[in-house]
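About this split. The held-out portion is used to measure sequence recovery: a designer receives only the structure tokens and must propose an amino acid at every position. Recovery is the fraction of positions where the proposal matches the reference. Here is one held-out target exactly as it appears in the evaluation file.
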């Protein structure tokens, strides 16, 4: 059975979130809630969501570093572009 991955994606700017939306739209194995928020704004976004609904959180750069503060999530920096993946 195929599994759909549910992601919370927090992009630091609108143009990047638009590109991500295009990619997610053509993938049948990914669902994503995509928000625009930078640094502390990203933490505020996560406070208003039920994070247990997501398989992971994806962000980048300084925003990703801020998200490392989320309790009960293991976070790792992926690749030289500093994308971060957080999983419960």
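Reference sequence for scoring:
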């Amino acid at each position: 059975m195929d599994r759909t991955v549910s992601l919370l994606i927090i992009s630091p700017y609108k143009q990047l979130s638009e590109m991500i939306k295009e990619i997610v739209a053509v993938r049948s194995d990914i669902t994503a809630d995509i928000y625009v928020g930078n640094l502390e704004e990203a933490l505020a976004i996560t406070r208003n969501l039920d994070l247990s609904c997501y398989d992971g959180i994806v962000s980048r750069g300084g925003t990703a570093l801020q998200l490392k503060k989320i309790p009960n999530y293991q976070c790792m920096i992926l690749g030289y572009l500093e994308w971060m993946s957080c999983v419960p």
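Annotator remark: The beta strands are 5-11, 30-36, 56-60, 74-78, 83-87.
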